[in-house]
Amino acid sequence: MKAEDLKGDGCTVFAPATVANIGCGFDILGFALKNPGDRLSLKISRTEGIRIETRSAFDTIPAEPEKNTAGVAVQAMLDEMQAEFGVNLLIEKGLPAGSGLGSSAASAVSAVYALNRLLPAPYDNHALVQFALEGEKIASAGQYHADNVAPCLFGGIVLARSAQPPDIIELPVPRNLFCVIIHPHVEIKTAVSRRKLPEQIPLKTAVRQWGNIAGMISAFYRNDLHLLARSLEDSIAEPVRSGQIPHYDEIKQAALRSGAIGCNISGSGPSVFALTTGIENARRICASMEKILNENETRYDAFVSVINPNGAEIISVD
Ligand code: HSE
Predict the structure, then answer these.
(1) 136 labelled catalytic
(2) Nearest CA, atom 8, ligand 1
(3) Ligand 1 centroid – CA 189 distance (Å)
(4) Mean pLDDT across 21-46
(5) How many angstroms does the Cα of residue 146 sit away from the middle of ligand 1?
(6) φ and ψ of 298, to 5 deg
(7) Average pLDDT in the 82-87 region?
(8) In this predicted model, what pLDDT tens digit does every residue of 138-194 receive, in sequence order?
(9) How far apart are CA 167 and CA 170, in angstroms?
(10) Fold (CATH) for 3-172+308-317
């Protein structure tokens, strides 16, 4: 494909934070938030190749395309299209790396979503997942998992029944569902965190986990918040990972005491999420979680968001 065939010279995209796993659904469940998120501007260039400029208040993001999840993802797409042009990317990070909020996925998704907008025959979201996953893979010790990339693209709550090949199922979102996020200021690299997980689990643990996953999916379909509360537990990753998160047990207990439906680790952490209905409940639960970190003089960010029904969005087209 040539640059002349495209529907524009560039565009700007917003890609939201995502909460992966949702407790029991390690690598298969996730949802999108409204905020925070990343912004990416893509410009078509007559010169082949990818050039990346990054702006981040938090950390240094690699500008080499082969080390950047946006660069790898968009390269996979350019290869598939046999593109005879290149792209310049400006990535403005609203999500810190290693926060558990799907930062690497947001970069990858925003790049492929932006290029897709300019195509005469755009790919659908199911096809875009595969390109974004090629980028996400470099942040995940070479493993494919679609539980950030898919909700970032589709919005809402999604089940990634399989990541390779991707099989993405959009799930119903319970009415008026809100999410509270507490992001303590420590960095946990997904790749490192994944290596600490057990390779094998006892059958008893597996049975408990898949009971909870089935319960959670049923709860979404039935809008049954009591069932969601019973199902929002994790017997596999949480016991291994929670020790890395400052004051995790106290934060979780504070959220549950304040009436949260459930509370668990967002992705591989350190962010912690709690679910509730309505903005008032969300603010109250957020304050109770913040109190723990304030009392312990631990720095953090806090966010309250509805579940984002749309996922990535085009902000403008040039
Ligand atoms: N499912 C992945 C993990 C998400 O828990 O490692 C990483 O954000």
Answers:
(1) yes
(2) 267
(3) 10
(4) 97
(5) 9
(6) -105, 130
(7) 97
(8) 998 899 999 999 999 999 999 999 999 999 999 999 999 999 999 999 999 999 999
(9) 10
(10) Ribosomal Protein S5; domain 2 (3.30.230)
